[in-house]
Write a structure and sequence with these properties.
145 residues
């Protein structure tokens, strides 16, 4: 995922422990694993149900459309935190949990690296530097803090 989500290895990745008991249940209740399929999700059934049966419509059924991705991406093993508006001024106004670790992209510039390492020191978060394996198509992580 480094080349897709971190500007070709120039960004960073955060690691979280979602089993941590200090996490507010609302956050973990809206954390979903991605479903990888060959077919696209047909949302027309959900939309028709909403239009014809609005009072009994389950607004959580829309989540399904947000967690289906092409089978081509299955190697990502992605999870998504999805916020669903439940009324006026609703949303996640909850303290988020501290990352377990920060993984620095193999091509991240030194200025960004230094900023993240400084934050990690203050917050006591582990830091790993990602490196390209010279003879393989693979990355390795090396702990630097």
């Amino acid at each position: 995922m480094w080349s897709h989500y971190t500007d070709n290895h120039k960004g960073f990745c955060l690691e979280y422990n979602f089993i941590n008991t200090d996490i507010h249940p609302t956050l973990t209740d809206f954390l979903f694993p991605i479903i990888y399929r060959e077919e696209m999700y047909d949302m027309s059934i959900d939309l028709a149900e909403r239009m014809w049966n609005a009072e009994n419509y389950n607004k959580y059924s829309m989540i399904h459309s947000l967690i289906v991705k092409s089978l081509e991406w299955a190697y990502e093993k992605e999870w998504r935190l999805i916020s669903i508006p439940l009324g006026k001024d609703s949303g996640f106004n909850l303290p988020f949990f501290k990352p377990e670790a920060i993984y620095l992209g193999s091509r991240m510039n030194d200025e960004d690296k230094d900023k993240l390492i400084d934050v990690a020191k203050k917050k006591q978060i582990k830091v790993f530097q990602m490196k390209m394996k010279t003879n393989q198509f693979r990355l390795i992580s090396e702990r630097i803090l």
